[in-house]
Every structure is written in structure tokens, then in C-alpha cells.
Amino acid sequence: MTATVASGLSEVARSDAALRAFLHGLPGVDQVGAQQRAAMLGTRSIKTTSKAWALDLAIRMVDLTTLEGADTPGKVRALCAKALRPDPTDPSCPPVAAVCVYPTMVATAVETLEGSGIHVASVATAFPSGQAPLAVRLADVEAAVAAGADEIDMVINRGAFLSGRYREVFDEIAAVKAACGSAHLKVILETGELATYDNVRRASWLAMLAGGDFIKTSTGKVSPAATLPVTLVMLEAVRDFRAATGRQVGVKPAGGIRTAKDAIKYLVLVNETAGEDWLHPDWFRFGASSLLNDLLMQRYKLSTGRYAGPNYVTLD
């Protein structure tokens, strides 16, 4: 029996048949209901004091990300400097949660952020496709961890999942979790390829059962990426998983979240679906690159009453 199976559900993964029966026995998602509830929560008005708190919380939840083929050590160092001091003109502005880079850039990020408390995350497992032999994907993880990454963002084998080979996906996630050692594991579901909310719910439970510390919507390379209804389904899953097992798992929407207004909608969704326990960077993150700039612009507007000029923030 795999040690990562959550307490209280240890029999679920004893066989492929048992795992399939459990996942397909989960309650179906009311598609219309999920979309309407997400839309309704997205209309909530946030007043000035609460908005200031929400903007700072959202900044603290950002995984500041660069995942481009043209990434260089210099670009990563500049991104780390921004992570440490998002607004150099305002020392009250909090730092972000993490910097997320490819494995080859982990050492640079670790060196630059040493002693800051900001996490270094790395995408791995043949990101973003996940189309590589398991041994190659595990080596990818081991290299990132050896370089100092304390968070690993892995992508599941969507082909295996959509083919119904759930035990194969489970075993691969469990193997990656073992390769992470003490590093936290974020499991990317790539919800844009899962097609249905029922599949999102099943993939969420599968990732948690196999030992994932976070479930993440997307790589940011596939459209659609994060959406409010999909994140709602995932938040319901982590809430119900904790009720069933006592273990809390985080959620990370990533891709397409670009404005402070959008970020606040997600924070309302978290509070109203999973509860206040998830309103912390340990349990909720935004995978983003451009979002931070808008959060900083809105923070400046709230404190000064005027919008900043175009040179107020750096273009990453």
C-alpha cells in the first residue's frame, strides 16, 4: 500500500478497480450551479479597508513566475529582486510567496533569495506536456530539489487520466512526491484539457490521495487556464478532502489572472467556499507574472488617490 494515501482512505488505492469506483462515485458537479455561484460571488463589493487588506494578501500569495525559453540568470535575479521588494518606493509593501522557474534556474533563484523566506518553486516532470518517460520526469524533479527548490510544480499525465488509467496517474504522482523529499508538491491538473467539471473533481481527489500538497489548475500554456468555476470545484474538493481525512491541501489557480479585480474575486471565492483557513499563502497561491503589476498599481491608487504613471512598475 502506498504510504501517501490519506489516512482514512487507505483502501481506495488498493487496486485500479477500487480507485476507479471511488473517483466515479464522487458526487457529480452541477455545471450550471457552479457557474452561477462563481459568477454571483464575483460580484461581491469590497470596501476600502478590506480592499487594502485583500491587495496585500494577494501580493503575499503570488508565485512570481518566468517560464520562457529565453530566461537567463540575469532575468531571474531581477525577478527575485522584485519578489523581495515589489514596490521599492514603499517598504510597507509585502514580498511575494515564491519565485517559480525552470530547474536550470533554481540555483540562481536560491542564491538570490537566500534568507528571505521567499520560496523557490520549480516546474518539473517535462513541463508543460508531461510527455516523457517517468524516469526522465523523476530525474527532472531530483535535479530541481538538489539545486535547492523547496516547491515542485508537476504536471499530471492527462492522456493516462483521460483514458481512465487512474492508478497509473496515482502511482506517478506518488513517485514524484517521494522524489520531492521535504519539498512541497503542487500537482498541475491542466484543467483546460480535462473537459468537464466532473473530471476536475476526480483529478483533484486523485492528486490529493496520491500525496499532493497543492492542486493547481494549469500550466498557463493551455487555454482556458484558471477560471472561477473550475477553482470553485477544486476548493470544494480540498474542503471535502480535509473533512474526510483531516489533511489540508492548498489550491493554486494559474494562467490568465491579470488584474487585482480578478484576484479579489478569487479571494472571495476561497473565503465563501473553503473558508478562512485557506486565506493564507501556505494554502492559496496565484500563479502569475503580470498580476503583480496591477496589484501594485491598485495599491498605489488606494493609498494616494491617483493612478501611477506607466513607469511605476517594471515590465517583466
TrEMBL record:
EC number of this enzyme: 4.1.2.4
InterPro entries: Aldolase_TIM, DeoC, DeoC/FbaB/LacD_aldolase
Pathway: Carbohydrate degradation; 2-deoxy-D-ribose 1-phosphate degradation; D-glyceraldehyde 3-phosphate and acetaldehyde from 2-deoxy-alpha-D-ribose 1-phosphate: step 2/2
Chain segments annotated as transmembrane: none
Reactions catalysed according to its record: 2-deoxy-D-ribose 5-phosphate = D-glyceraldehyde 3-phosphate + acetaldehyde
Keyword line: Lyase, Schiff base
One Pfam family this sequence matches: DeoC
Keyword Cell membrane: no
GO molecular function: deoxyribose-phosphate aldolase activity
Superkingdom, natural source: Bacteria
SUPFAM superfamilies, per database record: Aldolase (SSF51569)
Family: Belongs to the DeoC/FbaB aldolase family. DeoC type 2 subfamily.
Protein name: Deoxyribose-phosphate aldolase
Biological classification of the source: Bacteria, Bacillati, Actinomycetota, Actinomycetes, Micromonosporales
